[in-house]
Amino acid sequence: MSEIQIQIHVNGKPASGLAEPRTHLADFLREDLLLTGTHVGCEQGVCGACTVFVDGRPTRSCITFAVACAGAEIRTVEGFEDDPLMSQIRRAFRRHHGLQCGYCTPGMLTTAYDIVRRIPNADETRIRRELSGNLCRCTGYAGIVAAIREVLKNDPPVARIQPKMRSRREAETGAIPVVRNDYSPSSDSGSGLPSLESLSDTAHLTRSLELDTSVDEAWAVLADPKLIVACVPGAGLIAPIDGSRIEGQLVIAMGPVRAIFRGIGSLTLDESGRTGRLLGRGRDRLSRTSLEGVLDFALSEVGPENSTLTLDMRYRLAGPLSQFGRPELVTEIADRILVDVTRAIESSARGELIDVETPVTLNLFALLFASLRAIVARVLRRG
Questions:
Q1: DSSP 140
Q2: Which of 187, 229, 179 is nearest to 52 (CA)?
Q3: Handedness of CA 176, 180, 182, 185 (dihedral sign)
Q4: Residue 280 forms beta bridges with which residues?
Q5: Mind giving me the DSSP string for 245-282?
Q6: Which of 355, 349, 347, 343 is nearest to 222 (CA)?
Q7: Which of 139, 220, 331, 374, CA to CA, is 20 to 30 A from 79?
Q8: b (16+ CB within 10 A) / e for 143-170
Q9: Measured CA distances, 250 to 152, 230, 291, 361 (Å)
Q10: pLDDT for 98 beyond 70
Q11: Closest C-alpha to 115, from 97, 129, 99
């Protein structure tokens, strides 16, 4: 595989090197630049030991391609030698014995720095939640949490490392940066939504849901963005934008790590035909996984108290989490999710209270395990 010459800025200094497109940032930092303070643990973005700052944002370097960071500002644990805030954090870690074997410490220090600069009023519960993506097998976390609380209480210095709205490469060349940590409508051309033509050759999934409720009652749920979003596990409506345009998110739990897909969509409804279309695009900033697709749905009457909801979806999943996008696996996971969706629509149609403000997190590992077990069982039965 051919190598690519990349130019980045590491710890305030320009750096360059050759890297294959598949080379992770962690390997490039350790092996090419000899910055071994960045530790590699799980190599799946779960343990957090490899966390570094990319353009001022904490990033898992073991699942970030080095070539995707061309022109970005990288800050590793070695780059905080004279940073007053990091000095205060290190001293607090020593006082509260926030390290033992030290393997997780570089990632812990980076995450602690982010917590202090971003959430000055964080209490213990919030600190623990923010640390949930960094695993430690030694300390029990008590000393780490106590160290961060002490720093927050003692008027910490202003953080020198701040998230950048524009990377150095964009500022110098005017180009759109390769490293993009947040999804926003303005980050894509035009409306920010995918075109129907671009989704013509994507993965395809069709399903029908049998609802124990009348067409009118079911349509009242489908036509209300707040209600229907509340029926989907992990989904949440952030805010309406204008008219048919909405902003939402999908929260997926993967053990201690959460993927939060934030994006925009366009919802169009045909009241007379009881049909609709949702076109959308979203992105998880940590894994840099993107999801875009179109969902066409139609509601038809079966009886006075029964109806059928037909779903036709085309989608594209790109990035590290696309390994979960194999058609058979997606179908199995979708069927399990749709069981809950069906029950939620029926409950909402009957007027039962649904919490539209606090969505339930979608547990991907539980769904994945159950789906794989079902797939293996079917293969064994066929055999």
A1: -
A2: 179
A3: positive
A4: 265, 293
A5: EEEEEEEEEETTEEEEEEEEEEEEEETTTTEEEEEEEE
A6: 349
A7: 139
A8: bbbbbbbbbbeeebeebebeebeebbbb
A9: 31, 11, 11, 8
A10: yes
A11: 129
Q: Read off the tokens for 127.
A: 């600190």
pTM above 0.90, yes or no: no
Contact 48/134 with Cβ under 8 angstroms?
yes
Residues 6+ apart with CB under 8 A from 201: none
User: What domains can you pick out in the chain, each with its CATH number?
Assistant: 4-79 (3.10.20.30), 81-153 (1.10.150.120), 185-382 (3.30.530.20)
21-49 pLDDT, tens per residue?
Answer: 889 999 999 988 889 999 999 988 899 99
Cβ–Cβ under 8 Å, residues 270 and 276: yes
Type of residue numbered 64: T
Tokens of 201: 């050759």
Side chain identity at 92, as an amino acid letter? A
